[in-house]
Predict the structure.
Amino acid sequence: MVVEQEMAEVYPPTEEDLAEFLPDLNCGDCGFPSCMEFGAAVLENRTSPQKCSELSPEFGNLLASIVKLEKIPIPYNIMMEQEPCELIAVNNPDKSAPLLITSNFRETVRIMKEILEKTGTKAFLLPTQTHGYSVDNAVHERMFKAIEIWKAMQENRVAEKVERSVLVIPGLAESEKNSIRQLTRFDVLVGPVSGFLTPLFIMQNSL
């Protein structure tokens, strides 16, 4: 008898998620009646991002590289595996690169690092102590804490490595924005719920 393994989703982007980054003109030049339908077609590989004349070539190419990324669910039997809370420099960032906060669940860190690497996005990625919980579970269990983010920033001497007092938290952790801002004294931006769209968020916000 074969037992099916339970899997956890990795929050692949939906057309609603992607619509936040599209022009919302519904001009129809792309061949679809709305930007939402165009976004769905892009995510399903039924059309190319370059079909939208309102998107810059750089943005279109970045979106195309995101669509190609693997979005394989995570087996439940590897949940709670932890990654050290050490600052990761991705793609040789300089001090102007954005600081991204995540959980210390090993698979979350691996996926975020892969997203940044394969899209050529320069950033600092900082896993913080969530006792191996993924971001969604850490927020639910109250393990995504401002104090742990502050500790990780101090231990990694983040202030010496980034020139802007700005950090980006996952969209799933929006409820913690104010407490993180108050404790770290950094401006806090709330990124997308789907980590796969983080490169677009960085480009859109000129981070």
